[in-house]
Amino acid sequence: TQEITLEPSPSYTRGIEITPDGKTLISANLTDGGPAYIYTTEDYVTYSFTDTIAVNVLGNNIFRNQVVTMDWGPDGKLWFSHDAAYGGVGNPYNGFVVVDLENKKYSYLEIPMDSTEFNGPRGIGFSPAGDVAYATSFNINRVWKFSLQELLTPGNWVYNDALTNWKFEEVFIDIDDTTAAGAPYVSAGHGVVVDKYDRIWVGSYFAGNTGGLVVFNPDGTPADFSPIGSVTIGGEEINLAVTNGCRGMNVDHEGN
After folding, report:
1. Parallel, antiparallel, or unpaired for β 24-27 and 36-40?
2. Which of 20, 28, 53, 24 is nearest to 41 (CA)?
3. Are 202 and 137 in contact (CB under 8 A)?
4. Does pTM surpass 0.85?
5. What are the tens digits of pLDDT across the range 70-82?
6. Who contacts 190 (Cβ-Cβ below 8 Å, separation ≥6)?
7. pLDDT of 29-65, one tens digit each?
8. CB of 120 closer than 8 Å to CB of 95
């Protein structure tokens, strides 16, 4: 076990991501507008503050809302969830900021919205093939499905390198999709992954009667073993069917 002290402190955050070589740590900041902090090391013991993801070359903020979750995409880009969950309905900036750390480029993927709903995402998961993505919302109990699109050659007026060549396909799970008892399948979604069988796992922050983890088949029907209300790790049972029972998950390199 190793304790690492990060200076300056990344303030209030909900996770740290690390690059595959272990030399870079990225920590977000729940303050509106971020920033995200970057720490690097050469000895894997001391991590020094070396950069931020904050403003672009024009001095404009890259992040406008809270940066809550971070997920690696299949092409090595880092996806930051970007939402104003408590800041008013129909926020036009809700979506994802997709960052190419190596080349210092970024892009946005907006979430479908209307003027009557909160639509801030809290996590995105990708299929094993890397061509389908699922994002979950925090306030509207919804899961969106995206498909990877062919990237067209950028023209002179393209503001970035089109990292977000994804097209919205459909609302995969909606607030009206409920269990037999009338409870929503997803209750304040917080974290989503896709396993090697293309099943979609979604964490529920306000679990209630739905269980802390709900699992869907690719056709949108609940998996036979869903929901999951508790897990046992090292002989200790952990209750997931409570408020704050789940705030995210990951799959390993084999999709488990």
Report:
1. antiparallel
2. 24
3. no
4. no
5. 999 999 999 998 8
6. 69, 122, 123, 136, 138, 203, 204, 205, 246, 247, 248
7. 777 787 899 999 999 888 999 999 988 888 888 988 8
8. no
